[in-house]
Amino acid sequence: MIDRVLGFSLRSRLLIALLALGVIGGGAFALGQLPIDAFPDVSPTLVQVVTEAPGLAPEEVEKLITYPIEVSMNGMPGVEQVKSISAFGISQVSVYFRDDVNIYFARQLSLEKLQDAKSQIPPGLGEPKLGPITTGLGQVYQYVVTGAGRDPTELRTLQDWLVKYNLRTVPGVTQVLSFGGDVKQYQVQVDPRALLQYRVTLTQVRDAVRANNRNVGGGFIERGPEEYLIRGIGLAETLGDLESVIVAERNGTPVYVRNVAVVAIGPEVRRGAVTMNGGGEAVTGIVLKRIYENTSQVIAAVKDKVGDINRSLPPGVRVRPFYDQAELVDRAVGTVRDALIEGAVLIVVILFLFLGNVRSALIVTTMLPLSLCLAVALMAFSGFSANLMSLGGLAIGIGMMVDGGVVMVENVYRQLSEARHAHAGAVSAEAKRQMILASATEVGRPIAFAIAIIIIVFLPLFTLQGVEGKMFRPMAFAISFAMVGSLVFSLTVIPVLCSFFLRGGREADTWIMRQVKRPYLPALQWSLRNRKAMLGGAVAALGISLALLPFLGTEFVPILEEGSILYRATLAPSAGLSEGIRTATALETMAKAFPEVDEVISKIGRAEAGGDPEPVNNIEAIVTLKAGQFRKTGRDKAALVEAMDKAFAQYPGVAFNFSQPIANRVDELLSGVKAQLAIQLFGDDLDRLVESARQIQRVVAAVPGAVDVQVEQVTGQPQLQVRIDRAAIARYALNVEHVQEAIELAVGGERAGQVFEGVRRFDITVRLQDVHRNNVDAIGRLLIPTPDGRARVRLSQLARIRVVTGPKQISHNDGQRRIVIQLNVRGRDMGGFVAEAQERLAATVRLPTGYFLKWGGQFANQQRAMRRLAVIVPLTVGLIYLLLFSSFGSLTQAGLIILNVPFAMIGGILGLALSRQYLSVPASVGFIALFGVAVLNGVVLVSCINALRRDGMDLREAVYRGTVLRLRPVLMTATVAILGLLPLLFSTGAGSEVQRPLAAVVVGGLITSTILTLVLLPTLYNWVEERGPAAAETVAEGI
To answer: Are residues 48 and 89 in the same domain?
Structure first.
């Protein structure tokens, strides 16, 4: 098969050249179509059901809304987990599906089940709705609406009805959330004393406003030849229209709304705010990208639309971005792009130094654009995006891409040189073609087999699941696509280019090869004579390196550097919105004092519609940074975070947590908390949960490395409970509903219609004036009318009113109540931290019967990934061994090549230790890549020795001669792989944190693996084959 491919290529040289040009053209076209993202989207297949229930306490939200929705959602096919949060005025149920479930199908199923849930939710308590169809990376663009001299209500109105409306039309945008400022509202503020004076009730006021604000259609009439539409116009358009509404008639005199209430424009009751740079409140917007959309294209379209919007806004008002994910995309992609370019340049240089021939070096170099273009085309066809991991796969494989070409060109060049020397220079064209065909055939099968093994080596990455699968699968596909290209072009394009441009030269070694051979040849001879000492030294080195493993520390994935900071400040559970605004402003002023900080934008609580169900005592701030200032101050971002943490410590009772915008969002979606680690404690009683959680917090906080240790706030919310006295209401012929409706309308207020201003619409609300409802005594003085309307009874006479402490929020996992202790780890590895923490918890904490805890967050991801790799990697090594045996026909020789795998670990482990990297999933991927190259070099070396023995050469001479012949290609393959990864090893760009442990493993491992391949492998081959069957039997078949 391979012989026929080589023969066809050399007979159809122009066709092969045209096909190669077609690949380059196709790759260039595909590159323009390839979606571009910063990182692979690791978000789960998630459907969120959000129900706004204004005024309801967490207990009622849990019982009346959350529970029916949870029960309905649990029965759906493909559901893995259901989580929920029940907080004041809002329920959020998160339904997690298997990754193989299509998100649109999941939403369709959820909508169907939601109909069952709605029938179980009492009327008037809120309408469950599906959250936006986005992901953890969906918040791609955030902006502030500024305008000197404009009040927050005016800016918020412009945001809601002009900016947001236009941004929603951008292709790829699924939602735009408004946050901050005041929502305009027409308010009917009722005076209870006037109600008493005019003998009307609050309910009558509400009903009158509703009944006097309506347009209707009366159909049409025909008048002669024309048709007239009939419209009944009765919508309120001004404050005066509302004031003129008649509520009742007393003694022939109408009672107007203006007689019992003040009608004014005011702000809607809000549960959140935004402050900025310590300068007060601001109005902001968050653009959410639809799932599967091209991030770069969406952001570019949003920016274009923002430009149009700014031209249409009133003078002095403009939209200004403060968070733009495109900047992160550019930095992350730029990191890998630079590594690719630098690696390619280094590879070209090293090829020239080893081959000593410009033409040979350039021919091998053509493998890079060809393989990369084919990989890009296949990525575009398969629906992958260009991101840190997929492009990182190409950067990792850039050295391996040329391996086949190196072996092919080196063998052809060497044999052409020998032929020219033998024929005194002149070789006919046909003889040259036959010579190239023979040379290519000689190494074609080993090349194909070795590249196939490299592809097989990456099979474990395809089996990864969850976060690690979504992160590293694109890398595995990218490498595999590139290596397929390398295989194809090594056997087609490279022989053709050799026939066009390669002439051969002098047989003398290049300068660099002479320098290598000077110490190497004596070392090889010594090793062949002292094989026991050589083997003992290698085994000792392996043992020492394995002994280092427990001291390396473990983690899931290094933290990706996003170039910005996100901090969360959690105030006391009783803190209100005004206190949150005051604290956020003060923290912003402190943060702005650091020279590295550019801007600080804080979100307090939650937006009026959509977004996360955050309480008003929660502050979440994005800190954008000045990159150039870090060089001036001499500290890095970690030091800045530590300094900010110390500065914020002057706020006792406020808990802080530092993260990054995307990391924070992804952590929350995966584990339900906004931190790296989550200890979930399950049980029924909230008070006992809190007591046990605080015990766990104290123990975990004492473990070295623990920072930002917080217990989820589930209690501590002050409540004003109005407990109805049934005997008292019976005396006045009242029922519970009468009293509850009065409380709801008087204190909470009720929507009574809308006022339209063109297409803009604003709610009309009716409730008591603030002074008559803003304290315990005022609420106790509320007057409840009796059914006959003849008397009014104070609420304090009908109910017991008292202040108690109740739940802040109630969280569920699969229907079970739970509380979370969340934390981050700094200054040590996560695996070692968790092991120590678990040991201390087991020794000191005793949970009540029926209560249990689970570790979540990144630790759970790490454990899952390591368990799977621990099974799949040995199976893959076993599969490679079987393939080697099938090709070489010798268990012994297959075993000798596989021995390269454990010995390659020596340098990999040392590389991690010297670069101070933890053993992580990226490091494991590095070991996988390392095994492939190690096996490749072993295949090339053993194949050459076998070929010489088949030609009748003595064993010892064949081992020595074959090793020397393959010294240059083995060194070249290893060196180009190392140099291809050096830029990633020393890169400090965005995302380099994930690539660095991988590069450290491969670079370190290739150094030791290459040395052992060139010294230990021939020694062991000679030793084993001396004791084995005759040479003819051993090497008659195989590669």
So the answer is: yes
